[in-house]
Amino acid sequence: MSRSVNRVELLGHLGKDAEVKFTPTGIQVASFSIATSRSWKPKDSSEWKEATDWHRCIFWRCENIRQFLTKGKQLFLTGRMQTRQYEYEGVTRYVTEVIVEELILLGGGASPDRGGGAYASSPGNGGGEDPQQGITEDDVPF
């Protein structure tokens, strides 16, 4: 039997406020970029180096948290990678995105009245469920 896994976990900060749009059926979808950084010390140098990667993310049914997806906000999210193609001015283009399945709001970029919380996306469901379910901040392993 062939098995595979498509799972992404990211802990980073929003680069700018999320852009929220609506599908023709009225479902909200947010798109945003999250920055993750890594640092290392090369063997031949005494100075630390740092690199930042940007990840394009899509979060379906974001009605209850769109006001919290603001620049600088720290997030922990899980999801899956998806590559899609589209045509623009006669040229086929490809984009790889993280489809967010669960999102936890952490510190950074929030005022005291905007506490953290866990949110889940359910693109296959009718949208009537409460998007806060299951995971709490106590479940994050750091």
Topology:
Elements: E1 8-14, E2 19-22, E3 28-40, E4 49-60, E5 74-88, E6 91-105, E7 117-120
Parallel strand pairs: 4-6
Antiparallel strand pairs: 1-3, 1-5, 2-3, 3-4, 5-6, 6-7
Please provide a written account of the structure:
With 142 residues, the chain is an all-beta fold. It has one domain (8-37, 48-139): Nucleic acid-binding proteins (OB fold (Dihydrolipoamide Acetyltransferase, E2P), Beta Barrel). It contains no helices and 7 strands. It has strands at residues 8-14, 19-22, 28-40, 49-60, 74-88, 91-105, 117-120. It has a 5-stranded mixed barrel with strand order 1-3-4-6-5. It starts with 7 loop residues before the first strand and ends in a 22-residue tail after the last strand. The model is unreliable at 110-114 and 123-142 (pLDDT under 50).
